[in-house]
Amino acid sequence: MxxxxxxxxxxPLSDDEVHRLRADFPILQTEVNGHPLAYxxxxxxxxxxxxxLDAEREFATRYNSAVHRxxxxxxxxxxxxFEDARSTVAGFVGADDDEIVWTSNATEAINLVAxxxxxxxxxxxxxxxxxxxxRAGDEIVTTEMEHHAxxxxxxxxxxxxxxxxxxxxxxxxxxLRLDALAEHITERARIVAVTHVSNVLGVVxxxxxxxxxxxxxxxxxxxxACQSAPHLPLDVRALDVDFAVLSGHKMLGPSGIGALYGRxxxxxxxxxxxxxxxxxxxxxxxxxxxxxxxxxxxxGTQRVSQAIALAAAVDYLQAVGMPRIAAHEEKLGARLLAxxxxxxxxxxxxxxxxxxxxxxxxxxxxxxxxxxxxxFLDDRGIAVRVGHHCAQPxxxxxxxxxxxxxxxxxxxxxxxxxxxxxxxxxTIDFFGARA
Length: 435
Hints:
By secondary structure, this protein is an alpha/beta fold. 37% of the residues lie in helices and 16% in strands. Helix 3 crosses helix 10 and helix 11 runs parallel beside helix 14.
């Protein structure tokens, strides 16, 4: 008989638990257009619990000071809190403290990597930077479903270095063409940048296969974890990625803070992107020597209160339990998908992709522009996202110019999901768009 332990699947949050959590979010107690706010736009920006709001306020009122600079008590306390926050975020994603670089957001984190590789390609970093140097004929690989933040920086890097940008295509349902991996991730590939969870389709991509192919050809891997870190357990070391990026405002934290995970051995050989104070050891009028990572990549005054608040958000998420959050969203996502698919005239993008998904769905209604859908739902107090969601190539591949996106989180209730479904049906009736 097998002695292998079996881990029971996590239980979704109960209705009572969700309602208790909602009490921690002041904005969820408000009304919009005379209706209780039903916030279904967490894929763009999540709401913040009191613990996060209080953490930032407490820093501002008790510890506010520049970090890593002063010899006075306040500076020492601020520095300790700042570095404790780094340790908290590192633990959340399975990294070491010195593998986490603070950035303003995930977009800056991706640009940091792209520009560092660009600087290495110009000869900066010396011989040590050879493993991250790109040349004409090398290839950068991304996919057709990426957020613009994980596409345009690579377009620019290709233009600066003479490398070729290759794009893994999608099938007609919107799923990545895994049968085309070998064709697009060739022996010339130097870096592969892929999203963990699509911000339009909500599907959890089979990144293990993509990473395995990248390893076969010796390419580096950057994971866009913006839509996975808030919703799923994440372990960058177990996934075997070289870089990963996340954004605080999507995971209960404040805006203006994000993080880059980078393998220590890579960060140590990468030249800096932004330069100036706080990231140097010795400076003359003609040259400078740089600190080891992560400080090498943290030029100037840092986002101290935001980093501390992000750590408070991580503590909150871990207290609830990421496996339970994932199970809750899986349940809500299935309810949302099923309800929308039952409405005549509604096409849910990626609905037929046989992959796990988070609690997010984007849809198109025949004959009604997404902006009109969003405005109609807003009149009912329902907040959703409309437009191309910074993913024009994906929308173009699926034959639509824009879509309406509803996205859930740990504080979303089943009744709110039902309100979206009912609101979409009412939208069609209002505009007379039924067949």
